[in-house]
Write a structure and sequence with these properties.
With about 300 residues, the chain is mainly α. Helices cover about 85% and strands about 0% of the residues. It is built from 13 helices and no strands.
């Protein structure tokens, strides 16, 4: 036997040892025996074993995050801000969220690369098919968090977009009834907590920041950026302008509500006009062939029979 026959196993063993060493480096210093002795001394630790396991996983990821995310860390402030905005649109507002996200990409990419290399090397060896399986698995693990973030971000933005008209109408009613903007947002968050949790979360976060002493202009600006919805950005801009020039907030909200309602009516009409064009594709692919067979099929059979008889 030649050394080339053992090459796949050698590569697989090296990658496995590297990942095992990396996990041991970032894992807890306590051994399992020490943890069991602590549980015997304090039986209450057993009831929180699941929470402790989750916390241990979070701590391990937090320790490994700086080293894993260093290679993918954005170089410019513009790229850092863009990543923070995308994570904030998905409701990940923690300061360590970008670092954890990049570390997750690297870690998941390495794990999938290990799985793909094991599958490819054991089935095809060190050839093009094995390297292709390894590359596909690593790419799926690396870009999987990006796809997941896009889906979560898009779903949350759609929920805010759909729930914003009701929230804005209730906000207009509260302001016109004599409540201030802070109290109106608090009331909207209380009333629509079940039907519009994402919009209410943003309003509650705004109230908390205002209570902590931040300027209202900055809070409203961050509200539009975090939500990522154009209507929310327009609402924040109108409130900032109304506060800047001292105009009535109730009139500004009423104007924004009317313009939003007109815009949504136009969007519904636009989608209705596009429906007829979009229906042409399934009709041509699925309906017209069946109609063609039903109408032309008998005539085609009769013409074929006449030609065969002649």
């Amino acid at each position: 036997m030649e050394i080339t026959d053992f090459t796949p196993w050698i590569v697989f063993g090296v990658i496995t040892v590297m990942l095992w060493a990396l996990l041991n480096f970032f894992s807890s210093d306590k051994s399992r025996a020490t943890e069991r002795l602590e549980e015997l001394r304090d039986p209450t630790l057993r009831s929180s074993e699941k929470a402790a396991d989750r916390q241990a996983a979070v701590n391990m990821l937090s320790k490994a995050a700086p080293a894993l995310s260093k290679a993918l860390e954005p170089k410019s402030d513009l790229e850092k801000d863009a990543l923070k905005v995308r994570l904030a649109n998905a409701e990940f507002n923690s300061p360590s969220a970008p670092q954890l996200f990049l570390a997750t990409k690297v870690g998941l990419g390495l794990v999938c690369l290990l799985i793909g290399s094991a599958f490819g090397l054991l089935n095809w060896g060190m050839n093009m098919q094995g390297l292709t399986a390894m590359s596909i698995a690593g790419g799926m693990g690396f870009y999987g968090p990006e796809i997941w973030l896009f889906i979560v971000r898009k779903a949350r933005m759609d929920r805010i977009f759909l729930s914003l008209p009701d929230a804005l109408d209730l906000l207009v009613v509260c302001v016109e009834a004599g409540l201030g903007l802070d109290a109106a947002m608090r009331k909207v968050a209380e009333e629509l907590a079940d039907s519009a949790p994402d919009a209410c979360y943003e309003f509650n976060l705004c109230n908390m920041q205002l209570q902590m002493g931040r300027r209202r202009k900055e809070v409203l600006h961050d509200l539009g950026i975090r939500a990522g919805v154009d209507d929310m950005k327009a609402l924040a801009a109108i409130l900032i302008q109304a506060e800047k020039f001292g105009s009535s907030i109730a009139k500004a909200l009423r104007t924004q509500s009317d313009s939003m309602r007109v815009r949504r009516t136009q969007m519904a009409e636009e989608r209705a006009q596009k429906a007829s064009v979009k229906m042409m594709i399934p009709m041509v692919l699925f309906i017209f062939p069946g109609v063609f067979v039903v109408l032309v099929g008998p005539a085609a059979i009769m013409m074929l029979e006449n030609l065969l008889n002649d």
